[in-house]
Design goal:
single chain; alpha+beta; four-stranded antiparallel beta sheet; two-stranded antiparallel ribbon; about 60% helix; about 15% strand
């Protein structure tokens, strides 16, 4: 039974982590180096994550500066950013790339907040699916005679507590992201 509980807790934690990772890549009015985590650059014929070929810093709230360690990869970085889904235009001065983030419009902020809510709901559904799977696993163990009915009830109560905790984490993460998106 402990194996089922550990597996359940691990999978629920992964659901919350996946939501946090998705939120980190979601553009808000504030510049964040995490926006560039998924961008891959053609570095001597190999698709390499941007953060492995350059340093990414944010000297101001709405500015990102990307400084490659190898100047020859500057144009490849610029092309990779332009191809990305971020919808931003980098400016290249021959030594580094500057990306200015304009303030988001009210409509765009509402769109992003709606997307954030949808992602949170997806995480909640995934957590509930993990709960359902774990409950079914406990029922199978009880039917097979591996655990008693009392142990099954105890396990179900523990799984419900894990579910409530994970859903509360999703709610607080979503609330914080929505607040970040809606601030001007």
């Amino acid at each position: 039974m402990q194996n089922v509980l550990d597996n359940c807790e691990s999978r629920m934690g992964k659901c919350v982590s996946a939501l946090e990772a998705e939120y980190a890549g979601m553009r808000t009015g504030r510049a964040s180096a995490a926006l560039f985590d998924k961008i891959k650059v053609d570095y001597y014929g190999t698709e390499t994550p941007l953060n492995q070929v350059a340093s990414i810093s944010s000297p101001e709230a709405r500015l990102i500066v990307i400084q490659p360690w190898d100047k020859s990869v500057l144009s490849a970085i610029e092309k990779a950013i332009q191809k990305s889904e971020l919808g931003i235009n980098p400016s290249n001065d021959g030594k580094l790339i500057r990306i200015a983030f304009p303030p988001l419009t009210e409509d765009r902020r509402k769109e992003l907040a709606k997307a954030a809510k949808a992602s949170a709901e997806g995480a909640r559904v995934a957590i509930r699916n993990v709960r359902r799977d774990a409950m079914e696993e406990l029922k199978k163990l009880q039917k097979a005679g591996d655990i008693s009915e009392d142990e099954q009830k105890d396990g179900e109560a523990k799984i419900q507590k894990m579910t409530d905790k994970a859903i509360a984490q999703v709610a607080s993460t979503a609330e914080a992201k929505e607040k970040e998106i809606m601030e001007i």
